[in-house]
Amino acid sequence: MPYYRVVGEVPRKRHVQFRRPDGGLYAEELMGEEGFSSDSSLLYHRHLPTAIVKAEAVETGTETRLEPNLPLSPRHFRTQELSSAGDLVTGRLLLAGNGDVRLSYATSDRPSELYRNSMGDECVYVQRGRVRFESTYGAIEAGEGDYIVVPTGTIHRWVPEGPVNVLAIEAAGHIRPPKRYLSQYGQFLEHAPYCERDLRAPAEPLLVEGEEVPVLVRTRGGLTRLVYRHHPFDVVGWDGYLYPFAFNIDDFEPIVKKTHAPPPVHQTFEGPGFVVCSFCPRPLDYHPEAIPIPYNHHNVDSDEFMFYVGGDYSARAGSGIEVGSISLHPAGFTHGPQPGAVEAVIDAVARGVTTTSEMAVMVDTFRPLDLGQGALSCEDPGYAWTWAR
């Protein structure tokens, strides 16, 4: 993360003796990225974070299988038709993915088991409901519209307050704010569409007692369940630049031009081989002859995965797209407004409409996305032909 935080109790100097009230030493743990040559945090545990008493492999099943997008086609998936059998981790239904990122959907009302993704960062978007995110760093209360970014290796769990729907973005590396929004020292610049004040991180330690506690761990070799001697939520304090945080899509400040701006103005995060964008309500393009709707476009280097989370997408009227829909427009396909949409929006502007109400989360990938069974099970087979009607 681009700025320093300290939570709970930490010693004045790094890597010095830090003693418990009974005189024993707290166990120091350094969480560091990129071979400890990038961001890191120091966590101080009551017990050894290395003490495990059991390890067992976990079968992944066939739900992780991906199929090429062949024949090449734009796709429409209806997540409203999906229901997952597990929690917000084990119940994830794989929608699409490649070597850089996996995109899954989950809906659940039950707490997840403790989980650690050791393959990469995760960004989980809450479409509906409220959930408490608990981790070794502390807790974050999250709700509709929140992105929760979870650093690689963070032990955590999800505790819903009733039914919760999420889109899980699992990276093969680290997810960060775009570099162009930051100074050379990591501060958000004035032109950035959000800043440090918009980010919410754990504010106090989360201490939980327990022994022989299982933790599901994902690695490049598959899934393992490790059993820890003591509950890993035993951190009395931590400091550094690496920690989970939440950012709400309503705090994104859209960048507006006289004429329609391309998707990079909506970029919110970047990961290895992909970007995440937030489409939010904003003033319409204000040139007197503007066409305030996306032009036909062909992103020749990217697949576009768009999750419609709220509002009204006038450009897609007649396509079947609605809240909860996901469209996938591959790099080999030109897409844009539905027939008649341009004229309808120009007429609306003439009647005094001045703002959009659309809300969506978009993931653009720089390698082709293959399709998961979750997406194929809820596909609208007629979507590809809606431009020809």
From TrEMBL:
Residues at the active site: 260 (proton acceptor)
Binding-site positions, Fe cation: 297, 304, 335
Cofactor: Fe cation
Keywords: Dioxygenase, Iron, Metal-binding, Oxidoreductase
Domain of life: Bacteria
Domain Homogentisate 1,2-dioxygenase N-terminal residues, every copy: 23-248
Protein name: Homogentisate 1,2-dioxygenase
InterPro entries: HgmA_C, HgmA_N, Homogentis_dOase, RmlC-like_jellyroll, RmlC_Cupin_sf
A Gene Ontology cellular-component term: cytoplasm
GO molecular function, one term: homogentisate 1,2-dioxygenase activity
Keyword Metal-binding: yes
Domain spans labelled Homogentisate 1,2-dioxygenase C-terminal: 279-387
